[in-house]
Amino acid sequence: MVESPPGTPLPDRRPYHLEIFFLGDAKSGRVDGPGWLPFDLLGQPVPPNKGCKGRPQHVPTAENLEKAVLLYAQRKSDADVAAALGISIPTLKEHYFSTRELQAIRRNARAFVEGELLARLNRDSLAGKTGATEKLLKRLDKAGLAALGERIKDRGKADKAKPLGKKEAQKQAAGEVKGRFAPRQAPPQLIH
């Protein structure tokens, strides 16, 4: 049993079983309520309305956020991502992508994941792993070929002229009048 230093008051009550189950608040710094960490002993997040009436509020986790980013990188829809996480679409948008930074990650999830993978491959390659070096070189060659293909895709093709609208066609036809109503040529003395 741990003894308290002299001069400290003894607790006037025994802790509830929920308070024993949750970790202490030395790292959390919370001052409201009992002040326990938002995780139980099994590592599961504890909703802020634990013990209140109604359905417990969803608590976002880093694991679910990572799963959502990977699903968006595979170009999955909001409905597919929400179904994979077991939540509704409004809950997904409220808890996972409510800040601008997270919305930017969501929009650019594919580039974000590719960048992380390339950074890891580069780190492993610099550490001397030949498999990582080969994979990195293959990815860089593939990206170079894709960029080259984009550059030469339209080579040799003339730009198509935009079709004229009704009013533009009438103005052009008015300037090309021939025959009896065509404008006369200027006298030769005025041309020089």
Care to describe what's here?
This protein is an all-alpha fold and 192 residues long. Among the domains are: 14-54, no CATH class; 60-107; 109-150. The protein contains nine helices and no strands. It has helices at residues 17-21, 62-73, 78-85, 89-95, 100-107, 109-126, 130-152, 166-175, 188-191. The longest helix is centred in the C-terminal third of the chain and has 23 residues, at 130-152. Residues 152-192 are annotated as: Disordered. Residues 152-170 have a biased composition (Basic and acidic residues).
- Which class do the helix and strand fractions yield? mainly alpha
- Secondary-structure element pattern, one letter each: HHHHHHHHH
Helix content: 40-55%
- State the end-to-end CA separation: 116 Å
Q: Which range does the strand content fall in?
A: under 5%
What is the molecular shape?
elongated
| Count of individual beta strands | 0
Radius of gyration: 34 Å
Number of H- or I-type helical stretches: 9
Mean of residue pLDDT values? 76
Task: Outline the biggest β-sheet.
Answer: none
Low-confidence residue ranges: 15-36
